[in-house]
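Shall we go through a protein fold together, starting from nothing but its sequence? Label the sequence line and the structure token line clearly, so we can match residues to local backbone shapes. Would you write everything just below, so we can both look at the same thing?
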Amino acid sequence: MRTFLAVEIPGHIRKKITNFIEKEKNKGLPIKWVKFENLHITLKFLGEIDENKKQEIIPVINELCTKYVRFNMNLQELGCFPDSRNPRVLWIGVAQGNEILCDIARELEEKVSQFGFKKEKRFHAHLTIGRIKKFCKVDDILAKNLDTEPFSVDSIVLFESKLKPEGPIYQELEKFTFSCSATS
């Protein structure tokens, strides 16, 4: 099964992002926009794993989550990878909560690498909203303001990604809830 670890985005925040996407869709640019139900923040792409590998990593992720408490996050400012001269991926950045999200991603990277998962060079907290299929200018999009109100993050989710011709379908396999009390 093809898997990744992510932070879910509340429905009302996804709705605001989807409203923005719908307005941009009307411009007819060669961008494959992310669907409402697929909006999330990937912490670690795991790739293909079997049931045994899944069972191996679950206790490690559970343990990691006991070190963290619920925190607030908001999304702010549009950007693209690799850059605006050659845009491939459009995203919204993480403002409040960025530091803790990066800490969690860094720890996940360390923990799962012991099971043979490839280490990523660098984590950049973002929510992908579109993938550019053919070169187009996105300066007008990047100049827009898309900020969300803060929302609470209290867990990490292990998702399975099923690739379909109409786009991926994500199914929750396991939810890992953060500890309720702060630890030092």
